C-alpha cells in the first residue's frame, strides 16, 4: 500500500521503517489525512505477520511540529456550527472529535507490535504524544533537537494522552512543570526524566531504534502491565500530599488563574493518576473538550498560533513585488539600538556595514555583537565557527561611501530631526536609486522625516524594540508616500532576521507606544488618586501583564516620558496631555533626578546585586494614600487592560492599524498584553463590544473621560459586531498565508 505522507520500507529482519515526510511542507504536522494514513499503517503493520515491529521517523530535518493549525482551527469552526445546528449535542460531538487522536495513539500502543519513535529533530506537541504512545523512544543528540509539549502556550494542553503518559513515566513534579510551562527539553534532559530511552548520534538513530526491537522490546506499555507502579507513588502518598498544594500555589503565583488550559493540566494529572489508564484518557478528553470551548483557547490559538504564523509569512506583503534579496544592509548609528540591529541582521545571514561618527564609535558598536556571540557560544547556541562567521558579516566604518551597495539602510542615530535630516541626505547621496531607507525612530512621524528624502516612496519606518535580540516584534511604519516596494523590502528584511512584523500607518507613537503610554498613564492616574504603588503593580500582574506599569516606565526611562509629554505639548498644546501627569513627571525627573533604571532611581530603587529592586518608599509620600481595603483590585485590573484596549480600538478607527491580527499580535509581542486574552482587540471581541462599551461607560463615570467608548465601538455594540468580523483580515485584498 502506498501513502501520500509516509513511506514504508520493511527490512530483512521484518522491521518496518515508517518515514513521515509530507510533500510540499517544510515540517510534518498532524492533519486529517495524516491521521487516516497513520491509522491505515497501524492496521497494515499489525495484520502483516512478516512485520516484527515498526520504527517511525521523519524524512525532514525536524520530526514534527504537532497538530496542524487548520485542524485545531476547524475544531472551533465545527463547534460554532454544531452549536447553531444542534446545541444539545454540540459538546458531545466535539468530545468525539477530540478523542480521535487519543484513540489513534491508544490503538498504536495496544496493536501488539512494538513501535519505536526515532526522534531525529524537533518533536513537539501531538508528535511527542504519538512518540509517548510508542513502546520505545530514541532521540538524536543533534543540537537542534528539542522536545516539548508546548500546547499551554496557546491556551490548550496536551490532550492526546500527554497529560496521562508523562506522569506515568516521570515524577509528578517534573511532569507538571514540563506541561504547565510548555518549555523545551534537550534529548539528554528528556532521557534523565525517563521520557526517552536512548540518546544517540544522528547517524546511529535508526540502527539504535531497530536494535530496541531486535532486542525484544515488549509491545506493552508499562501502564498496561499488571502491577504497574506510578513513579513517585501516585496521589495518595506523603510526597504527593506535599506536592499538590504547592503545585496549585505555584501555578496561581505564575498565572493568577488566568489560563484555564494550565489549570486543566493539574486537574487531568491529579484525577487521571487515580484511575485506570483508559478512564484517565477519558478524563483528559473531557477537560480538553471543555478547554476548547473557552474564549481563552480560541483567542490564544488565533493570535499566538495562526495570526503570528500568517504575519511571519508575509500576510501583509504587497502582492506582485519580487522578493528582495538583500546582499548588504547598512546601519547608521552604532549606539544602543544600532549595535543590536547590526547583530540581528548578521545573525539573519546578511552582511552589515555599521556606521557611526567615527571609527571608534563604529567599532564599539561591533563589540556589542562580540559579547553576544561569546555568550551564545558559551551557552551552546552557536558553534565557534558560526560565531566567527556571524562577526565576519559586520564591518564597522565611518565612511558613508561604504553604503554604496547596500539594498537597505537603517538609521538609528540620535532622536533629533536635524541629525536625522543630515544622515538621510548623506546616505541618499551614495546609495543606489532603488535602495530603501528606513528609520528606527520611536517618536518622530515617518511622513515628516521623509520630507528630507529625495525619494519618499522608498522611505519607511522599521521600529525595533529593546532588547532587539530578544524582542520578536518589529513595527513597520508607512509614511504617506511610502511605496509598495519599500514595504515589501522591509517585510522581506524582517522575515530574514526572523522577527514578526506588524504594518501600521504613521501616527505619533505608532501603535505599540500609543498603547504602552496609555498603560503607564493609567498608573499615573492611580498614583495621583492615592492607590498604593504596590497595589498598582500587583493588579497589573493579576490582570496578566508581565511587567507592572511603574516598572515598565522605569525601563523605558522616566525622562523619556517627560520628553514625549513635552513634545506633545509643544506640537499640540496643553490639552494634549494631563497636566497632573506632567507635574508628577517633572517632579520625578527635575526635582528628584529619578529617571528610571538607567540612573538606578525611578519608581523603584535599584540596590547593588544580588539584592532585588523594590518600590521607592518615597513614592507613597507624594500623594495622600487611600486605604488599600477600600480599593477594588478588580477595578484596577479592568482599568489597566481597558485603557490599552481602547487605545488599540482608536488606532483601528483612525486607520492606523488596519488588520486586527496586527493589533493583537503587536500587543502581545510588543508589550506582553495579557496573552490569555489573545491581544487587545480579541479582549474586546472576547467579552463582546456591548459588554466592553458598558464597562467603558462605567469606568468613564468613575475614573475619567479617557474611558469614554468611541463612536465605532458604540456602533459595533449596537450591531453586535466583532473586530474580526468588521475588519475581516481574510476579506477583500487581504489573504491568509
Ligand atoms: P544612542 O544614543 O545609544 O545611539 C545613537 C548613535 O548614533 C550613537 O552611537 C551616535 O554616535 C550615533 N550618531 C549620532 N549622530 C550620528 C551621525 N550623524 N552619523 C552617524 N552616527 C551618528 O541612541 P539609541 O537609544 O540607540 O536610539 C537610536 C534611535 O533608535 C533613536 O531614533 C531612538 O528613538 C530609536 N529607538 C530607541 C529605542 C530605545 O529603546 N532606546 C527603541 C526604539 C527606537
TrEMBL record:
Gene Ontology molecular function: any one: delta(3)-delta(2)-enoyl-CoA isomerase activity
InterPro entries: 3-OHacyl-CoA_DH_NAD-bd (IPR006176), 3HC_DH_C (IPR006108), 6-PGluconate_DH-like_C_sf (IPR008927), ClpP/crotonase-like_dom_sf (IPR029045), Enoyl-CoA_hydra/iso (IPR001753), FA_oxidation_alpha_subunit (IPR050136), NAD(P)-bd_dom_sf (IPR036291)
Pathway listed: Lipid metabolism; fatty acid beta-oxidation
BP term (GO), one: fatty acid beta-oxidation
EC number(s) recorded for this UniProt protein: 1.1.1.35, 4.2.1.17, 5.1.2.3, 5.3.3.8
CDD domains assigned to the protein according to its UniProt record, in alphabetical order: crotonase-like
Domain 3-hydroxyacyl-CoA dehydrogenase NAD binding: 328-507
Domain 3-hydroxyacyl-CoA dehydrogenase C-terminal span(s) in chain numbering: 509-606
Record's keyword terms, sorted: Fatty acid metabolism, Isomerase, Lipid degradation, Lipid metabolism, Lyase, Membrane, Multifunctional enzyme, NAD, Oxidoreductase, Transmembrane
Protein name: Fatty oxidation complex alpha subunit includes: enoyl-CoA hydratase, 3-hydroxyacyl-CoA dehydrogenase, 3-hydroxybutyryl-CoA epimerase transmembrane protein
Amino acid at each position: 500500500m502506498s501513502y501520500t505522507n509516509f513511506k514504508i520500507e520493511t527490512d530483512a529482519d521484518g522491521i518496518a521503517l515508517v518515514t513521515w515526510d509530507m510533500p510540499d511542507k517544510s515540517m510534518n504536522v498532524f492533519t486529517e489525512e495524516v491521521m487516516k494514513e497513520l491509522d491505515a499503517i497501524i492496521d497494515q503493520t499489525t495484520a502483516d505477520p512478516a512485520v516484527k515491529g515498526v520504527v517511525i521517523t521523519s524524512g525532514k530535518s525536524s520530526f514534527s511540529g504537532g497538530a496542524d493549525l487548520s485542524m485545531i482551527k476547524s475544531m472551533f469552526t465545527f463547534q460554532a456550527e454544531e452549536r447553531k445546528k444542534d446545541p444539545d449535542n454540540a459538546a458531545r460531538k466535539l468530545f468525539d472529535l477530540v478523542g480521535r487522536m487519543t484513540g489513534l495513539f491508544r490503538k498504536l500502543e495496544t496493536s501488539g507490535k512494538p513501535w519505536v519513535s526515532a526522534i531525529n529533530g524537533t518533536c513537539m506537541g501531538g508528535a511527542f504524544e504519538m512518540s509517548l504512545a510508542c513502546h520505545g523512544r530514541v532521540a538524536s543528540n543533534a543540537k537542534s533537537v528539542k522536545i516539548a509539549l508546548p500546547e499551554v502556550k496557546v491556551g490548550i494542553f496536551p490532550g492526546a494522552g500527554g497529560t496521562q503518559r508523562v506522569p506515568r513515566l516521570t515524577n509528578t513534579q517534573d511532569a507538571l512543570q514540563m506541561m504547565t510551562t510548555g518549555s523545551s527539553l534537550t534529548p539528554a534532559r528528556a532521557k534523565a526524566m525517563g521520557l526517552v530511552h536512548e540518546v544517540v548520534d544522528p547517524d546511529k538513530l535508526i540502527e539504535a531504534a531497530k536494535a530496541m526491537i531486535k532486542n525484544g522490546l515488549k509491545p506493552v506499555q508499562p501502564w498496561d502491565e499488571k502491577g504497574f507502579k506510578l513513579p513517585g507513588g501516585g496521589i495518595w502518598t506523603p510526597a504527593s500530599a506535599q506536592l499538590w498544594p504547592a503545585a496549585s500555589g505555584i501555578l496561581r503565583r505564575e498565572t493568577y488563574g488566568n489560563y484555564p488550559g494550565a489549570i486543566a493540566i493539574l486537574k487531568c494529572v491529579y484525577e487521571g493518576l487515580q484511575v485506570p489508564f483508559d478512564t484517565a484518557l477519558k478524563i483528559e478528553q473531557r477537560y480538553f473538550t471543555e478547554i476548547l470551548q473557552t474564549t481563552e483557547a480560541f483567542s490564544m490559538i488565533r493570535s499566538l498560533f495562526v495570526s503570528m504564523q500568517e504575519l511571519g509569512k508575509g500576510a501583509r506583503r504587497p502582492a506582485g513585488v519580487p522578493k528582495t534579496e538583500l546582499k548588504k544592509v547598512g546601519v547608521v548609528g552604532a549606539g544602543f539600538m544600532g549595535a543590536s540591529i547590526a547583530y540581528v541582521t548578521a545573525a539573519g545571514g546578511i552582511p552589515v556595514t555599521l556606521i557611526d561618527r567615527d571609527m571608534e564609535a563604529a567599532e564599539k558598536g561591533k563589540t556589542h555583537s562580540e559579547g553576544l556571540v561569546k555568550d551564545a557560544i558559551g551557552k551552546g547556541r552557536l558553534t565557534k565557527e558560526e560565531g566567527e562567521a556571524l562577526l565576519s558579516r559586520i564591518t564597522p566604518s565611518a565612511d558613508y561611501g561604504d553604503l554604496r551597495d547596500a539594498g537597505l539602510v537603517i538609521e538609528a542615530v540620535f532622536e533629533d530631526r536635524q541629525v536625522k535630516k543630515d544622515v538621510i541626505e548623506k546616505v541618499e547621496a551614495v546609495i543606489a536609486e532603488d535602495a530603501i531607507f528606513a528609520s528606527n525612530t520611536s517618536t518622530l512621524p515617518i511622513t515628516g522625516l521623509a520630507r528630507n528624502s529625495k525619494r519618499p516612496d522608498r522611505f519607511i519606518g522599521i521600529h525595533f524594540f529593546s532588547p532587539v535580540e530578544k524582542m520578536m516584534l518589529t513595527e513597520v511604519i508607512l509614511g504617506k508616500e511610502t511605496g509598495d516596494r519599500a514595504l515589501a523590502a522591509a517585510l522581506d528584511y524582517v522575515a530574514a532576521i526572523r522577527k514578526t512584523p506588524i504594518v501600521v500607518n504613521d501616527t505619533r507613537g505608532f501603535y505599540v507606544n500609543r498603547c504602552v503610554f496609555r498603560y503607564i498613564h493609567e498608573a499615573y492616574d492611580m498614583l495621583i488618586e492615592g492607590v498604593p504603588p504596590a497595589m498598582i503593580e500587583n493588579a497589573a500582574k493579576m490582570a496578566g501583564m508581565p511587567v507592572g506599569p511603574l516598572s515598565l516606565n522605569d525601563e523605558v526611562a522616566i525622562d523619556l516620558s517627560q520628553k514625549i509629554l513635552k513634545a506633545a505639548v509643544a506640537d499640540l498644546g496643553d490639552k494634549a496631555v494631563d497636566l497632573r501627569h506632567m507635574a508628577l513627571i517633572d517632579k520625578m525627573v527635575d526635582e528628584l533626578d529619578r529617571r528610571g533604571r538607567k540612573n538606578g532611581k525611578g519608581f523603584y530603587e535599584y540596590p547593588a546585586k544580588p539584592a532585588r529592586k523594590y518600590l521607592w518608599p518615597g513614592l507613597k509620600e507624594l500623594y495622600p494614600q487611600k486605604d488599600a481595603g477600600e480599593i477594588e483590585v478588580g477595578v484596577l485590573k479592568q482599568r489597566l487592560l481597558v485603557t490599552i484596549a481602547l487605545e488599540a480600538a482608536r488606532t483601528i478607527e483612525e486607520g492606523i492599524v488596519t488588520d486586527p491580527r496586527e493589533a493583537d499580535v503587536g500587543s502581545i509581542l510588543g508589550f506582553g498584553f495579557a496573552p490569555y486574552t489573545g491581544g487587545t482587540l480579541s479582549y474586546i471581541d472576547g467579552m463582546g463590544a456591548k459588554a466592553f462599551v458598558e464597562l467603558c461607560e462605567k469606568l468613564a463615570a468613575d475614573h475619567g473621560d479617557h474611558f469614554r467608548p468611541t463612536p465605532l465601538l458604540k456602533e459595533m455594540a449596537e450591531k453586535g459586531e466583532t473586530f474580526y468580523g468588521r475588519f475581516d483580515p481574510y476579506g477583500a485584498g487581504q489573504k491568509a498565508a
